[in-house]
Amino acid sequence: MWEVAEELNAMLVFAEHRYYGESLPFGNKSFTDSKHLNYLTSEQALADFAILIQHIRKTIPGAQNTPVIAIGGSYGGMLAAWLRMKYPHVVDGALAASAPIWQFQDLVPCSVFNRIVTNDFKKSGKGCSESIRNSWEAIKRVSSTGEGLQWLSSAFHLCSPLKSSQDAAALKAWLSETWVNLAMVNYPYKADFLQPLPAWPIQVVCKFLKDPSLSDKLLLQNIFQAVNIYYNYSGVASCLNISHTATKNLGEVGWYYQACTEMVMPMCTDGVNDMFEPQKWDFQAFSEECFKLWGVRPRPSWITSVYGGKNISSHSNIIFRCLCSSSFPWLLSPVELEKVGVVPGSWEARRLTTEMEELG
Description:
The protein has 15 helices and three strands. The protein has helices at 2-7, 34-37, 42-59, 75-86, 112-124, 128-142, 146-155, 165-184, 201-206, 216-232, 252-259, 283-294, 302-307, 334-340, 347-358, and strands spanning 69-73, 93-97, 318-321. The chain has a three-stranded parallel sheet with strand order 1-2-3. This is Lysosomal Pro-X carboxypeptidase isoform X2.
């Protein structure tokens, strides 16, 4: 991005999403209740970006008639694609990297994403995904006693000791999210997007997870060594906090609210075709949790209604590119690939097809 911008004599503009970072419309009250959070939507964010682009064109010399390309990855990639779709008179094209625009309703099976995450670990080391799969029952057995809970707290260097079966469940949820996060940032270079990490962090993690047949405690000690790469690669953490899986300035609270309103992405696991504990997608339970947290109910069909779901062939100049193997549940057909900017037979199209074929 930096190199291409310099080559094209282009200006790079990083626009902060409302309710993230320092862009808090109600200051410290922004997250107090759903009344103040009512303006946190992707549609509002897109409108912000469109107005910002128009302002830049009016106020910066030389920018008036220059083309604009929206760029983003993950949720930012979704926004880039949607910005081109909704504001084609403002944005001339979009590069949407690892953008899961089909992870809604029943556009793809709810199991696909976690199968792909599992495939990342399976490819990165023999016995790796199997060790993680076996760890859930190991945690269950060890945590069945008070002594076992104390051992887990010590073995994982937790900041707050585990005291109940609910705490053990929280530990497992924290581990699950850690594996998913690792897949999403499995870059071929050092990065600190979620946490400071080495290049190809899953390969580094899998070095500790070679033998899934170990006894419970030995296996879980290796699991700790693996997650410690994610949480303490820099070596400065004195303990691990299972209430956090990313850097504090990432804006997790805002994303959780969006997930409870518009960004409703069905996810499920079966423990056979993936390395996670079996868990069905339970929309009703999810809705109740959202209402308890925010006083709102999720709208599962809103995103597909607003942005079109799979019916995007009328749009143009959008390149959907996959930068890592953790985010392929939105595979496009050859016709759709061509119309939105990914050419059938290209490297991107072949890689997408190969990944999905490996998943069955």
